């Protein structure tokens, strides 16, 4: 299977949830609201210190990590290949000024030339396949 076909399969999978940009869809669990806070805390506790760093939240979904990352990072790029997920993240984080948004996958990520090397947050590795 080529990398492009694999990315298309993952895109098609998440497209099925594009009309439900919520925590349950992001975590693929109908009781996700009960688990979300502890799950997020567990994952964030394993990250290095990101204070005043540029951070790329790849596969950001509705921004459940983007919000917390933006509290300490200098700048956050929140990216996902599902437009409605990015739209929900923009809505949730409208009050935060250091977040930029991009629709697309990690392979086609576009960064401004003047940005310092970002710290990357890969929450989901399985959808990234490079040949």
UniProtKB/TrEMBL annotation:
<feature type="domain" description="Methyltransferase type 11">
    <location>
        <begin position="56"/>
        <end position="114"/>
    </location>
</feature>
<dbReference type="Pfam" id="PF08241">
    <property type="entry name" value="Methyltransf_11"/>
</dbReference>
<dbReference type="InterPro" id="IPR013216">
    <property type="entry name" value="Methyltransf_11"/>
</dbReference>
<dbReference type="GO" id="GO:0000234">
    <property type="term" value="F:phosphoethanolamine N-methyltransferase activity"/>
</dbReference>
<comment type="pathway">
    <text>Lipid metabolism.</text>
</comment>
<dbReference type="InterPro" id="IPR029063">
    <property type="entry name" value="SAM-dependent_MTases_sf"/>
</dbReference>
<protein>
    <recommendedName>
        <fullName>phosphoethanolamine N-methyltransferase</fullName>
        <ecNumber>2.1.1.103</ecNumber>
    </recommendedName>
</protein>
<keyword id="KW-0808">Transferase</keyword>
<comment type="pathway">
    <text>Phospholipid metabolism; phosphatidylcholine biosynthesis.</text>
</comment>
């Amino acid at each position: 299977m080529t990398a492009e076909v694999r990315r298309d399969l993952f895109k098609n999978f998440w497209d099925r949830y594009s009309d439900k940009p919520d925590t349950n869809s992001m975590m693929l669990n109908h009781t996700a609201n009960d688990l979300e806070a502890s799950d997020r805390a567990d994952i964030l506790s394993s990250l290095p210190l990101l204070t005043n760093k540029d951070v790329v939240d790849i596969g950001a979904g509705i921004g459940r990590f983007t919000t917390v990352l933006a509290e300490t990072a200098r700048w956050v790029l929140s990216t996902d290949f599902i437009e409605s997920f990015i739209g929900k993240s923009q809505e949730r984080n409208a009050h935060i000024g250091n977040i930029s948004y991009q629709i697309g996958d990690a392979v086609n990520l576009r960064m401004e030339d003047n940005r310092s090397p970002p710290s990357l947050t890969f929450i989901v590795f399985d959808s990234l396949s490079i040949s």
